[in-house]
Amino acid sequence: MTREVPLPETSEDAPETLLTPAEVAQLFRVDPKTVTRWAQSGKLSSIRTLGGHRRYPQSEVMRLLDAGKAQREDS
Amino acid sequence: MTREVPLPETSEDAPETLLTPAEVAQLFRVDPKTVTRWAQSGKLSSIRTLGGHRRYPQSEVMRLLDAGKAQREDS
DNA sequence: CGTGAGTCGGGTAATTTGGGGC
DNA sequence: TATGTCCAAATTACCCGACTCA
């Protein structure tokens, strides 16, 4: 049973789901290293764990996936 | 049975909300064990229950989340 | 006072990072 | 310019048994 206390969200809580580099890489069918390069070049937002590993917002990844899937090349 | 949950303090005193290892882990998309290592290495402050379990200040967790943010250059 | 979920510990795989070169 | 691969070091994930929490 999960704890059910009234979490007094200090401000605005965005339960943003995060994806690991491997997960994003599989979605795009590229190497995890490529995903890292996207993040480094500012093409993709990223969050850092306290150990330095990157986590990517699922919502943005999905948006970028949809942006280029139904199109033949580019409209 | 009466439960000792953090009441929404209406005045002074820092109503510091404490998060469980599992909650912090979900926010960073890491394993609860990883959060424990962060606390052990001093990267994250923690409170100990009388039984030895760790609790983490929500405010600090949120601050660290924002600190590791890297947005896209184009928004 | 039981019960189930969560969190200790430690150990050992798997993943990620960063740089360099193709 | 963009992606894939090799490398070593660092970080993280999963395994267990025992204990704590609600």
From TrEMBL, chains A, B:
The keyword DNA-binding applies. Residues 18-67 form the Helix-turn-helix domain. Keywords: DNA-binding. InterPro entries: BldC-like, DNA-bd_dom_put_sf, HTH_17, SinI_DNA-bd. GO terms for molecular function: DNA binding. It holds the Pfam family HTH_17. Signal peptide: none annotated. The keyword DNA-binding applies. It comes from the Bacteria. This is Excisionase/Xis, DNA-binding. It comes from Brachybacterium nesterenkovii.
